[in-house]
Amino acid sequence: MPTPNRVLIAEDSSVIQNLVKKILEFQNFEITAVKNGEQVIQLLNKEDFDIILLDINMPIMDGMECVKAIRELDDTAKAKVPVVAITGNARNYSEEEFKDAGFNDVLMKPLNFDKLVIVVKALTEK
Fold first, then answer.
1. 4-aspartylphosphate modification sites (predicted)?
2. pLDDT-derived band at 1, boundaries 50, 70, 90
3. Chain segment 79-93, per-residue pLDDT in tens
4. HEC letters along the chain
């Protein structure tokens, strides 16, 4: 059996974090969840992930800062990992700004869980 794709979720809302976790675990993804961007960078320095889901509005380090930090990592494989923005405030940023920051895709809140699964599967197909 192939090893499951590893997903790192950075989301400060435990409700959304738990829902995303359950849905993706049901799809055979292995999930690690954290509450802010700083924890994402710390984990990325120690572990490998196949995709990262980043909430835009988080304490300590938000999603925009975090994706830029990921793209600047010295480890080129980790710097290229697919990153998806999760946001309820899409009006604050244009699609162009998300792309320029380094995101591969954007999911709007309230989350469409079917779209979540489609996007995560598309970006992690080996």
1. 55
2. low
3. 999 999 999 876 778
4. CCCCCEEEEECCCHHHHHHHHHHHHHCCCEEEEECCHHHHHHHHCCCCCCEEEEECCCCCCCHHHHHHHHHCCCCHHHHCCCEEEEECCHHHCCHHHHHHHCCCEEEECCCCHHHHHHHHHHHHCC
